[in-house]
Design a protein that fits this description.
The complex is a heterodimer of chains A (about 220) and B (about 240). Chain A is mainly alpha-helical and about 220 residues long. Chain A is built from 9 helices and no strands. In chain A, helix 2 packs across helix 5, helix 3 packs antiparallel against helix 8 and helix 6 packs antiparallel against helix 8. The longest helix of chain A has about 35 residues. Chain B has one domain. Chain B is about 75% helix and about 0% strand. Chain B contains 6 helices and no strands. The longest helix of chain B is centred in the last third of the chain and has 46 residues. The radius of gyration of chain B is 21 Å and the shape is globular. Chain B starts with 7 loop residues before the first helix and ends with a helix. Classes of the chains: A mainly alpha (about 220), B mainly alpha (about 240). At the A-B interface, helix 6, helix 7, helix 8 and helix 9 of A face helix 4 and helix 5 of B.
Chain lengths: ~220, ~240
């Protein structure tokens, strides 16, 4: 177990270090996310009341869009100079690559969320913070990243790889997205606490399920 | 080598499917009674449900084939999975369109974001993505493996989608099993309606088997052509 976790962390640190030196993923994600929020505001000409009601939806859709950037990039990065072969040669369980990549993508997405949520609140004069909301963001982004990392490993081997990830990913994460938006909306505007519990159970279940799927099928799809 | 002929049993099945469909159609038009409140548009129901169930069967077969493909690595299962997806998509599209035609007068809208409707639509999107994924890969073994993984992931999310949308209230009538009394457009089937319903269900089942057999055969023939072409190219070099 220990070398497995060590391998996950090694991949995680390697990617963070590369990111610190190149600064290509996070910066793009942030600027893109802010642009998407702006597009939403102008496209719908949102009034104050609608901006408050639509907050959860706008933020989650923005996170989903921005997430595809890091999901695509963090794996094509390995492909570019055939670094993936060196990763595969490492004498560790290959599932460690899956969890390492998922961890680093998760951190990128959480950083993006930590910036765009306050920015949305600030721009629209809303109060969006709650501990429950933090939990929903942690669980929701985790599920998104687990599914996304698995599918971006799939698209890595395709001809039109960057193009296809959203097409493959978005229909599969609909239940997750719905649970995130509903749970966030209930937390922000009040609602039935029993319904909130259902959504939280659903989020936890989704995360566990897709962690298990990744564990089971990842080493089959990464083979070169 | 002589070209392989279409099996006799398959030709027989084609005619049987045609006959069963014609019979079911005649029953729907001439035999089934008019429902009291919905009138003639209710007759859409017979083919709508039968197509939906047969479509689901296609996706289900595709998932089983995908799991088998991942376990054995045999390309035959890949062909079997693709056949299930393609036929499932066509039948599910029929189900959605016929449902919309029924819903316009009964629900007063072509479309509503009800669990069944939404899940059917998302399934179509997932399997369209499955077909796109396949078209992006040239190597047959890799294509089989990656498509199988996506088919499994996609099928896992289908019940989750259904359940999550179900937490919102539904207005779709449930004809088999327990029904929510608030559903709109619910009716009780009398015996002649049941006869019509089960004959159209039987007709679509036979149609499904015939189509599936054809598609599976076609897939295998295609794979054989590709193999021979590759062999010829190697000889040429």
């Amino acid at each position: 177990m220990k070398p497995f976790i060590g391998a996950i962390l090694a991949i995680f640190w390697k990617d963070l270090l590369a990111e610190r030196r190149t600064r290509e993923i996070l910066g793009t994600m942030l600027v893109f996310a802010l642009t998407v929020i702006l597009v939403f505001v102008f496209a719908f000409d949102l009034s104050v009341e609608i901006r408050r009601k639509a907050a959860a939806g706008v933020i989650w859709v923005t996170l989903c869009f921005a997430g595809t950037i890091s999901l695509n990039r963090s794996l094509t990065l390995e492909r570019d100079r055939e670094a993936i072969n060196a990763l595969l040669l490492a004498p560790v369980d290959r599932t460690a690559i899956f969890f390492g990549k998922a961890l680093v993508n998760w951190v990128y997405l959480l950083i993006t969320a930590a910036i765009i949520v306050p920015v949305y609140a600030l721009l629209n004069n809303l109060s969006l913070f709650s501990w429950g909301g933090l939990g929903v963001i942690l669980l929701g982004t985790l599920g998104y990243i687990l599914t996304g990392t698995l599918l971006s490993t799939l698209t890595l081997q395709l001809r039109a790889r960057d193009m296809l990830l959203p097409v493959l990913l978005f229909p599969v994460i609909i239940p997750l997205l719905l649970a995130c938006v509903r749970a966030s909306t209930i937390l922000l505007q009040g609602g039935n606490p029993a319904e909130l519990d259902t959504w939280l159970v659903m989020l936890v279940g989704y995360d566990l399920l897709f962690a298990a799927v990744g564990l089971l099928v990842f080493d089959r799809i990464i083979e070169e | 080598m002589k070209p392989e002929k279409t099996p006799r049993a398959l030709i027989f099945l084609d005619f049987l499917a045609l006959l069963a469909l014609a019979t079911a159609f005649a029953l729907v038009i001439f035999y089934a009674p008019f429902e009291l409140t919905m009138g003639s548009v209710q007759k859409v129901f017979y083919f709508h449900v039968a197509a939906g169930l047969a479509g689901m069967l296609g996706f289900f077969v595709a998932t089983i084939a995908a799991v088998a493909c991942l376990k054995t690595g045999s390309l035959k299962w890949d062909v079997a999975g693709l056949a299930g997806v393609e036929i499932g998509m066509v039948l599910m599209a029929l189900c959605i369109v016929s449902g919309s035609i029924w819903a316009r007068p009964v629900w007063n809208t072509w479309w509503t974001w009800d669990p069944r409707l939404t899940t059917a639509l998302i399934m179509e999107l997932i399997y369209a993505a499955y077909l796109l994924l396949r078209s992006g890969l040239d190597d047959a073994r890799r294509r089989a493996k990656l498509a199988a993984v996506y088919a499994v992931v996609g099928f896992i999310s289908v019940p989750l989608t259904f359940f999550s949308i179900r937490v919102f209230r539904t207005i779709h009538p449930v004809m088999i099993g327990s029904a929510d009394s608030s559903a709109n457009g619910l009716f009780a089937m009398n015996p002649s309606m049941q006869t019509t319903f089960f004959s159209s269900l039987a007709a679509f089942s036979i149609l499904f088997i015939a189509l599936y057999w054809h598609r599976y055969r076609l897939g295998n023939l295609q794979a054989e052509i590709n193999e021979r072409r590759a062999a010829l190219q190697e000889e040429g070099e």
